[in-house]
Structures are given as C-alpha cells and as structure tokens.
Design goal:
Chain lengths: 103, 328
C-alpha cells in the first residue's frame, strides 16, 4: 500500500466565525473538512469551558482538513484574515494519505 | 411596601426562581450536574415557540391596532438609546476602555428573552393582562443596540473599530431566536383562538414546567460563568451589573407611560429595557468587535444582571410599572 505526503491543517476558531472560515476554505479549493466541537481548554485568558456559556459566543470549534502541499499557501492566505483578529490558532503538520487524488 | 415584599417573596419562592437557584447553587458547589446541549436547545425552541404563539393569539383576539407600531418604534428607540446610558454609567463606575465599555453597553440595549419569558409567567401568576404584541417588541429590540455599540466605538476612534457588513446584518436579523419568535407570533396571529385550542395541551400546560427545567440549566451556566470569571469583574463592574438594569427599567417604564401601555405591558417593556443579551449580541460582538473581552460582557450579562433581574428585578419592575401606570 503506497503512502503519499500531505498536509493536515487544524484551525481552532471562535464558533461565530465558523461559516466565514469554511467559506474561505472552499474558496481555496479545499474539497473536504471536518468540524469538531471544542469542549473546554485553557489559553492566554486562563481556563474556559463551553458549559459556562450560552449560545455560540464564548465557544470554540476546530476545523480539520487534509490537503496537498501545493494548495497549502493559498489556503493559509485565505484563512488567516478570518482568524487574525480573533481567539484561535492555525497549525499545519505533515501527514500521509493513501488516496492523494482526493486532496 | 408590604405589597412589594409579598410580591418579592412570592417571586423568590416560586418554582421558577427556586429551579434557577438550584442550578446556580449546584454550579457554585462544583456539582457535575449538567444538561445535554440538545435538551437545552430543544427547551429554548419550545419556550420561544410557545411565547411567540400565545402573543400572536392575543393580538388576533384584540385586533391589530396602531398601538403595535408605536410600541415597536418605542422598542427600537429604547434599544438604540440604552447603550448610551450604559456607556455613561460605565465611564463613571468603571475604568473599562472604550472598546470593552461599548461592547458591554451594547448588551444592555438588547434583551434577554428568557427574562422576558419569566416575566410573562409572573404576569400569568398574578392574573395581570398585557399586550400580546410585546413579543414582537422583544424581537425588535434585539438588534439596534448592536449598531449603537459599534457607533460608540467608532466615534471614539478606538483602534480596530467595529465591522458591520451585510452578512453580519443577515445573521443578526435572521438569528434563530428572532425567526422562531416572530414566526410563532405570526402563526398565533393567523390561527387565533382556534389554533390555540388545537395545541393548548402543548403550548400552555407544560410551559411553566419546561421553563423550570430551562432555568435550572441557566442557573448552572450562570454559576459556572461566575466561577470562571473570578478576578474578571471589579467591584465597579459588578455594581454596574445591578444599577444598569434598574436604570433601564426606569427608562422603559417612562417610555411605556408615554405610549400608554397597560400596567402589564409597561412591566414587560421595563423588563426588556432592564435585561441584557447573552446570545445574539455576544455572537455579533465576537464578529464585529473581537478586541472586546468576552469574559467581561458575558459574565456581566449572564452572571450578574440575569440572576439579579430574575430574583429581585422582576418584582421591583412590576411595582414600578403598576405605580407608574396607576394600576394595581
């Protein structure tokens, strides 16, 4: 079974900004992504938990996508303006996939 | 005064408030009691539908009059005006920067629909009638305060400034609570008493029980928010969270006098003016004004003002409204 290199991008972002971010990903040609709830955590403002807020404000989500390296820079260039002024972070790690034509 | 204490004690001893206090106490005691998010969401959908529907039925019974337009305009003006009062108070009582202060002020111009629902429940218990269209006034008061808050930031030249684009407008005006409230109101207005008879067993009888469970969850959220925010709120900010709703209620009551609402309607307008948003405005502020600290405005509106209004504010506003309107 042949493995192929790809990039895994994980973006933690405030829930009210989610739709803006996924649209930026689609504009960058990202063909698939997953949205995961972030239940609790700790950051520069100390610990937080989604069970102490009501509605989307004060909660975070994580968007995970796998893409080929040639799409990465354009994706980051489009995603960063959405995240820039907000709580959140973008991380990029190396990964391997079995079906590279899907990414 | 004796009547006030009797009303206040009756309110504090009601299942609604005791359910909220149970949730608050459980959270402060760090109990692991929790509600699945889907349950809380289903309860809020039910409560919004029921309150909107019943408001619509009331309008269908009493007929559509010009009073609705007057009340809607009053609500919009109050929502836009109250942030300026809040800003002035914040300047005097706290040392918040302009951006944080404007964000907080915006929350107090908008409304808490749960406080409104609890207030209508108190009116039912007391047998006091109110204008059914106050539900529509509640919906109209959600958004104007956001514009005032953004104007307060931009007029002060604060770095970053507020961002308001067409998409944010759509998200605010078509947020789920407003769509459900207005939609159910229209269904109630169109179907009237006949419609109510068909679904009365669903929207009337279980209403208070569902509200109790919902307030229990709100107590948990408010308590956990308070625990999390220790050190975030100064004494001045905490005092603002109590003084501002009283000021808002007075302005709301004055507006009710000017437009000639019934004592019940005046009470509801006072409650709307006293309450602070913790759903629509925080989400809008995170998009339009991300530099503002959400720990401050969420804790103030949900952890201080909401419990205050629910326990002490509601009987005070009812007394204020009945005294001002010459009822009771």
């Amino acid at each position: 079974m042949q493995l192929h290199p790809a990039k895994r991008v994980a973006i933690v972002i405030e829930a009210p900004m989610l739709r803006r971010l996924t649209e930026a990903l689609e504009d960058a040609g990202v063909t698939g992504y997953s949205v995961l709830p972030v239940l609790a955590g700790s950051g520069r403002s100390g610990p937080w938990s989604s069970d102490s807020s009501f509605g989307t404000a004060g909660t975070l989500v994580q968007v995970v996508c796998i893409l080929s390296e040639d799409k990465l820079q354009d994706m980051v260039d489009r995603a960063f303006p959405v995240v820039e002024r907000h709580i959140g972070m973008i991380t990029v790690t190396d990964c391997e996939v079995l079906r590279p034509e899907r990414f | 005064m004796q009547e006030f204490f009797s009303l206040a004690l009756g309110n504090l001893g009601s299942p609604l408030i005791l359910s909220f206090v149970l949730g608050l106490a459980a959270a402060l005691a760090r109990s692991d009691l929790s509600f699945p998010e889907a349950v809380a969401k289903a309860l809020s959908v039910y409560l919004l539908f029921a309150i909107g529907f019943k408001g619509g039925v009331s309008v269908s019974s009493h007929g559509l009059t010009l009073d609705i337009g007057t009340a809607l305009i009053a609500g919009v003006v109050l929502s836009a005006l109250i942030p300026f009062i809040a800003m002035a108070l914040l300047r005097v009582m706290t040392s918040l920067g302009r951006t944080d202060a404007a964000a907080v002020a915006g929350h107090y111009g908008s409304i808490s629909i749960v406080t409104f629902v609890a207030a209508t429940s108190v009116l039912d218990s007391q047998g006091i009638a109110s204008e059914g269209y106050m539900v529509a006034v509640a919906a109209a008061m959600e958004a104007p305060a956001i514009l005032s808050a953004l104007w307060l930031v931009s007029s002060g030249g604060a770095s970053g400034g507020g961002r308001m684009d067409a998409r944010l407008w759509r998200e605010i005006l078509l947020n789920g609570s407003i769509v459900l409230l207005i939609g159910a109101f229209l269904i109630g207005a169109v179907t009237g008493e006949d419609g109510l008879r068909e679904i009365e067993a669903f929207v009337v009888d279980p209403f208070k029980g569902a509200l109790c469970i919902f307030l229990l969850d709100m107590g948990l959220i408010a308590g956990r928010g308070l625990l999390k925010s220790r050190g975030v709120l100064s004494l001045g900010l905490f005092a603002f969270g109590v003084v501002m709703p009283l000021a808002g209620a007075m302005v709301g009551t004055l507006a009710a006098v000017l437009i000639g609402l019934s004592p019940g309607g005046a009470f509801l307008l006072a409650v709307l003016s006293a309450s602070a948003s913790y759903i629509a405005v925080p989400a809008a502020m995170r998009v339009a004004l991300p530099e503002a600290d959400p720990g401050i405005y969420l804790t103030l509106s949900l952890g201080v003002t909401f419990p205050f209004n629910l326990t002490i504010g509601i009987p005070v506003y009812l007394m204020l409204a009945t005294a001002a309107m010459g009822g009771g």
